[in-house]
Amino acid sequence: IEFILYLKNEGFKFNYFNNDLLIKLFKCNIFNRRTNNNFNNTNILHLINDLSNHKLYNTNIDTLNIFLEYYDKIKYKINIDEVKEFVENNQLELEINYDSLHFSANSITKDIFDYLRSKSNIDLKQNNEDLLLQVCMKNDVDFAKYLMTIEPTFNLSNDNDNIFCQCCNYGSLEALKWLVPQLPNLDERAKYEYGICGACADGHLDVAQWLMETIPDLDIKVDNDYCMVQSVEEGYHDIIDWIMKIEPERYIIEYDEEYEEI
Length: 262
Hints:
Structural class: mainly alpha
Radius of gyration: 24 Å
Helix content: 55-70%
Largest sheet: none
Number of helices: 15
Mean pLDDT: 89
Strand content: under 5%
Low-confidence stretches: none
Number of strands: 0
Shape: elongated
Distance between the termini: 59 Å
């Protein structure tokens, strides 16, 4: 900060200290190297606060949201004390929004989520109840349960059981084990088509096997053998072998000598 202020006093114009630069930094491989101990979120956040105090960086809620959005991708994580400091230092210009809760909605950052929620009055069910959907897709059952305690009117069957379908697509097996017993009236297409097809098409053998064991009368041949066709196209050998055990007389599968090309 001292050198930046020196350059400013020398007449340099800084027009690029903004949130776009912060995103580029967090995407930079050098920033996230294990051996790079000199640059981390704490240093960057303090620098941003200093730049803001000198009118060189216009901080807003999106600045904080970027730290939360990239939480999983960067080596050093923002913590609750840093979040509180940022909010309190910028409280006149800061208004917590839905993205703030969306990006902090997981078990690891539950303390940040609770703090930001206490500073706002945001409807957790907006955006077609996407908050619960994203938590389930990430297989975070504990936080999904928590959301249901603070907002019990979440609709687990929303949008024709889209949560169930997306959990199948993303391989979120633990979320499915928690979810399915609470859905006695699963949408027919979700139950007998979208779920198993999505699991196979995206290579989630464990989910596909669990669905076949859990849902009565589930047919692996559904939708013109979509499960096998997609598995062949994507090269999911484990799913192909599994389907062959279920329907040994229906398909003829040939591999090359290296067991690579189908």
